[in-house]
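Hi support team,

I submitted a single chain yesterday and got back a structure, but I'm not sure I'm reading the token output correctly. Could someone confirm the output below corresponds to the sequence I sent? I've pasted both exactly as they appear in my results page.

Thanks,
R.
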Amino acid sequence: LTTIDVMDIFDSQEMLNDITDLLEELQHVKWNTKDDYWYTSLLPEFKDSISRLCVDSHNYFEFIDILRPNTFIHGDFTCDNFALDEKGHLIIYDFQHGCLGPKGWDKAYLASTMFYDKCPLILNKEEMYTAEIIAAIRLGRAIRKEIMADIELRTNLLKTWKERNIW
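Hi R., thanks for writing in. Yes, this is the structure output for that exact sequence:
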């Protein structure tokens, strides 16, 4: 397997197209409609992560509370979790957080790993809100785990999403 760096996405329209196609295909995965992992595991963890930030998190909590799980999501769609196989096909792995989740979550998750002004993904308004919230969640996780290098990067990533002043 060949690992993929976020810069690979910027450098290749073909890679971006493959990722966009994969995101679309993921939404068609049949999944147990009684799956409650989103509510029982992910939402509490998201709220815990956000609560570690020194920001007014009311808007974030309000927004994630209205998101409804209605499609399959990978749940942690970052470059760390996909690669190219020996034939150059894009593959996804590490479905630890795979569950029913809100449409657009995975796309927003990938976007949140990029600086807003450098993100090549086309996001609708809800996906942009979601990307900012995920950037906040990811920063909160780094704070909880005390990973200094991640804290600095994720602080800067969140800042670029917050600068849009959409709240």
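A quick pointer for reading it: The mean pLDDT is 93. Let us know if anything else looks off.

Best,
Support desk
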